[in-house]
Amino acid sequence: MKPGYKQTEVGLIPVDWSVRSLDQIADPKRPICYGIVQVGHFSNNGIPVLAIKNLNGDYVTDVHRCSTKIEKAYARSRVRPGDVLMSVKGTVGRIGLVPPNFSGNISRDLARIALSDSDIPAFWYQLLQSDMAQRLLEATKVGTTRMELSIGPLKQVKMPRPPKEEQGTIATILSDVDELLGKLEQLIAKKRDLKQAAMQQLLVGQTRLPGYEKAKVYKQTEVGVIPQDWDLCCIESFARIATGTKNTQDRETDGQYPFFVRSQTVERISSYSFDGEAVLTAGDGVGTGKVFHYINGKFDVHQRVYCIHDFAEHVNGYFFFLCFSSRFYNRIMQMTAKSSVDSVRREMIANMLIPLPPTKDEQTAIAAVLTDMDAELAALERRLAKTHDLKKAMMQELLTGKNRPVSKGASLA
Predict the structure, then answer these.
(1) Bridge partner residues of 107 (DSSP)
(2) What is this structure's pTM?
(3) Which listed CATH number (1.10.10.10, 3.30.70.940, 3.90.220.20, 3.40.630.30) goes with 20-161?
(4) Cα–chain-centroid distance for residue 278?
(5) Is it the case that residue 336 has pLDDT exceeding 80?
(6) What's the longest Cα–Cα distance across the chain?
């Protein structure tokens, strides 16, 4: 036995920690309960009612309401700031925390855990999201097609409980990580918006890069307004269009070459039918008009994937990829009366008009700018993923007592 630790039904924990059921940490005057406001009782005004969708932190917009008269019958499930919420029907086990200044009720898909004064809400919010807690909650699930957490067994689920001061320190550390995650997510969203705006400007010549500025003379075309010196060309005039000959079962786990099928996932294969620069898109299936790939090298292709390759000398393949992938879905939707497209016909690609800058150099420069933006986004997304992994590792250590904070003021550096 590790010195300073003890073995319990929830595993090895520090000797000064205890094990408590969720019922034992709840305020006796406000026991754990389900919400009982039904969807049919919602209205456009009255008392705010939180649902599962609000557990992502959005407690302001898109909040249901029920009339004051109906809400009086549901007084026992009223929530207060600091109450912990848990989804108990459908998508079970999601955790939320009632924010400051909120007053309202909860839908029947949520349970409320109102804590006693001996516990820190932010700590239990973190603990109940941990892998350990989710495994313990898993045992209380009932149902087959639509899962539920049964209230009786839920009350008896046992968790490790540090002293109140340590709860506060742990909550502060993990909240710091959450704040960092939130800032990264906001930055990524901002960068995505900037890239989208840049694409909308650069790919139609509304903004010209330094060195390629011309007199601001534009012309109206079938695809919109483009610079006077840009060309409008159908794809089959500057590239070949083909489909592959392979089936999905031809993929090989350790294949030497990329194998493009009808999904965003790139498989592997030991043969290749194409060698060079190409743009690929799904010919049918759920990825129709949504799955695109760019490659320059040896690869093979599924029989229902279109391969656009052998570009003319004046066309930059990656510029074409950016332009094609941003426009093709809207084109095929305009060519059908249905809300979805079952398959792509060759002429949908062959006759598609693409605006092209007058020189390959300008196309390459535009592609380079957008490639740099993609690289920046990818780096931020990798950092976000690593930070998520960091938090998961910290939760495993802190919420089980394996690694204890040095002091109450400990926080993420």
Answers:
(1) 37
(2) 0.82
(3) 3.90.220.20
(4) 29
(5) no
(6) 80
